[in-house]
Amino acid sequence: MQTENGRIFREAWIAGVRRHYPGEPKPGYVAPWEETPDWERDAAAAVCAQVEDFVRVGGGSTAKLSREQKGRFVALCWIVQIHKHFEDPKPSYVADWADLPAWQQLTDADIFEAIERAAAR
Questions:
Q1: What's the confidence (pLDDT) of residue 1?
Q2: Of 3, 8, 14, 99, which one has the greatest count of Cβ atoms within 10 A?
C-alpha cells in the first residue's frame, strides 16, 4: 500500500510539474518512481496517506475546499516530511505557502485532487 500511495503522489507531482512548470523542469522533478530517492518515496507515501485520511474523515467534505486550501494541506504535510528526513533542510525545502512559486502551488493542489479522486474509488 505504501508503494501504491507513493506512486499516486509521484505521478500527480510529475503531471503537475509538466503542466505548470515554466520552461523545462529539472530532471529530478520529473524522474520516474524507480529513480526517486528512498527518502522521497517514503515522504510521498506518507503525504498521500495523510491526504487520504483527511478525505476519509471529512466524509466527502474536502470537495468543498478551495484549490488553495487543498494545496496548502499538501505543502504543509510535505514540510513535515522534509523536517523528518533532513536535520537542517534548505530554506526553500520548507518554504511557507506564500513563498512557493505559483507552479508549485498549482501542482500541490493537483496532487490533493488526484489523491482525493483515488480515495473515492
A1: 60
A2: 8
